[in-house]
Amino acid sequence: MPSPIDFNAVKKALNSKTSLQLIDILSFTQDDYDPAAIPIIEEILIERGVPKADIVACENSYGILKTNIENQPEKHQYANFWPRCFNYVIDHIICYGTVSIIAYNVPFTYQQTNLYYGYAFAVYVSYYAIFLGLFNATPGMLIFGLTVVYTKSKKPINFFMGFVRGVFMVLNFITFSIGHLIMLGDKNKQTLVDKMSDTSVVYR
What pLDDT is recorded for position 124? Predict the structure, then answer.
């Protein structure tokens, strides 16, 4: 008597394949897989945004479906709470350390408090604009394998959006990072900063 199929293990293995590889399996090499795996492949493709009608018709319209998939935005996995939390702490330590060095070398009097805050604002915003513009990730994000993309197109962001996120991050810090908590109940795991800038943090 054959052992029962571990559907979770099968789905995990198939999830590592690209959408085009899964379409190849459905179109040409179904004999190489247990028939019970076919519904799992279809489920994965639907989760990735491939229309059900295209999947059903894949044997007759493989070429069209392949082109459609190639033109679809790349699907990324949204970053979880704790990696983002730790990357935020790391980035804050770097920025705060930079501001502290400036304050140490350029002593500010009480009357120059606003000037100090201006330096701090410039450091934080420049930090995010430069790193997100060049690498689509801050040092903290790079440590945890994260990157920032536009929510709809999933394409890397530019310097201007890095600057925008930097401004929103400063505002988020001023409000004790409450905006980060909404990602716990958001299906796309977006913080308030993400939503305001129409961006998402995903795994590379």
Answer: 95
The residues near 106 (Cβ < 8 Å, ≥ 6 apart) are: 119
Same domain, 100 and 51: no
Q: Are 119 and 99 in contact (CB under 8 A)?
A: yes
pTM: 0.62
Distance between CA atoms of 18 and 40, rounded to whole angstroms? Answer: 14
* Residue 1 within a domain: no
Q: Tell me the residue range of the domain where 143 lies.
A: 81-203
Six-digit token pair at 56?
């059903």
The answer to whether residue 139 is domain-embedded is yes
Q: Which amino acid is at 105?
A: N
Residue pair 62/27 in contact (Cβ under 8 Å)? The answer is yes
**pLDDT tens-digit series, residues 71-116:** 665 567 899 999 999 999 999 999 999 998 988 887 777 667 788 8
Q: Which of 6, 1, 80, 10 is nearest to 41 (CA)?
A: 10
CA distance 144 to 86: 9
Do 62 and 147 fall within a single domain?
no
- Residue (of 3, 7, 11, 82) closest to 46 by Cα position: 11
pLDDT at 1: 45
